[in-house]
Automatic annotation (TrEMBL):
It is an enzyme of class 2 (transferase). Keywords: Purine biosynthesis, Transferase. It comes from the Bacteria. InterPro entries: Formyl_transf_N, Formyl_transf_N_sf, GART, GART_AS. The keyword Transmembrane helix does not apply. It comes from Hydrocarboniphaga daqingensis. The active site is at residue 108. It holds the Pfam family Formyl_trans_N. This is Phosphoribosylglycinamide formyltransferase. NCBIfam families: PurN. One of its GO terms (biological process) is 'de novo' IMP biosynthetic process. It catalyses: N(1)-(5-phospho-beta-D-ribosyl)glycinamide + (6R)-10-formyltetrahydrofolate = N(2)-formyl-N(1)-(5-phospho-beta-D-ribosyl)glycinamide + (6S)-5,6,7,8-tetrahydrofolate + H(+). The keyword Calcium does not apply.
Amino acid sequence: PRLVVLISGRGRNLQAIVDATRSGRLRAEVALVLSNRSDAAGLDYARAAGIPTQVIRHQDHADRASFDAQMLAVIEPLQPALVVLAGFMRILTLPFIRALQGRLVNIHPSLLPLYPGLNTHARALQAGDAEHGASVHWVTEELDGGPVIAQGRVRIEPGDTPETLGQRVLEQVEVRLYPEVLQQLLTEPAAR
Ligand code: GRF
């Protein structure tokens, strides 16, 4: 089965996914890495890994609908089993979400429904939470609000900063959880 991965930045989740396809832990092929930013470092990684890449700059589009329509025109012919948001930092329109219903997933760095949106690590620290983590969820029109598929937790340690906590969430949760969940979704048609 084919995956299309959407990025905007460093692509640490993309790297974890590609590594998992290479090691056989994730029996799928990353058919395309799509970015809305030409300077996304994840593109360099994809190119070095021999994975097709494409940049669709949101600045080149008058509105979200037109940007999303072009992304869809690129994605749909590939008929991916899953479209994977991995550090993708654009809010998607309803037509895009509807067109990919049941195939569109995201990873969010919090224990949803806690802390949808940005600055999740700082907010968890501010709240004095004992735990934090990441959630893989179906994408719906509600930002970071779709049904949660799986979560991973870490303890918040004394002296944690948003950076140290974010790094722990990424290293101990995200890079393991996402490939695992994607493989599960490919093998069992989970509730979509
Ligand atoms: C990570 O915090 C991830 O949870 C969120 O985007 C951030 C950067 O991810 N989805 P990446 O390094 O671009 O994969």
